[in-house]
Structure to design on (177 residues):
């Protein structure tokens, strides 16, 4: 059983599904109200995507299940390698990198099951610690810290692109999006 679960072919199949679904999740806005999707999708398409879980992909049961299967495949690979080699001949670098992958997958599973999504709206010089949840029936999410927007500016260029500059004054970092 563990030998079948540690199959390299299974790894590539699971990875292929994961990559395709993550590309779709990156291209399709996630967790938006259905009215937002109706601006660029037909009602039938919205209904199909909603049933397949593509409108909240990273929290959908099948996506979390895919992460769990990939984690089981990786764990089985680690166990098979340990079983087949003596302790002194183990490729420690490869084993540690596989364990790191397991930690990343565990984070994805935990986020998919227990993670919260929401919006934090701020105006210049305003602080807030309350996040409006995406799910309509959930109450406000109270963060254990405050977020303050010190400045906000959008520069418009002739090419139609917009640049947004985000900065944290205390830590001194600056990000242009």
């Amino acid at each position: 059983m563990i030998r079948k679960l540690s199959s390299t072919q299974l790894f590539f199949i699971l990875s292929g599904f994961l990559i395709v679904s993550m590309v779709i999740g990156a291209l399709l806005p996630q967790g938006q109200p259905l009215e937002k999707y109706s601006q660029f999708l037909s009602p039938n398409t919205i209904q199909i995507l909603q049933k397949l879980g593509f409108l909240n992909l990273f929290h959908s049961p099948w996506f979390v299940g895919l992460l769990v299967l990939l984690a089981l495949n990786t764990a089985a690979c680690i166990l098979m390698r340990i079983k087949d080699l003596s302790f002194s001949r183990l490729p420690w670098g490869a084993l540690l990198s596989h364990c790191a992958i397991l930690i990343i997958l565990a984070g994805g599973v935990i986020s998919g099951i227990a993670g919260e999504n929401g919006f934090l709206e701020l105006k210049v010089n305003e602080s807030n610690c309350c996040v409006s949840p995406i799910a309509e029936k959930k109450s406000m999410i109270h963060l254990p810290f405050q977020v303050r927007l010190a400045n906000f500016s959008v520069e418009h260029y002739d090419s139609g692109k917009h640049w947004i500059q985000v900065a944290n004054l205390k830590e001194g970092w600056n990000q242009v999006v």
Summary: The first helix runs from residue 2 to 5.
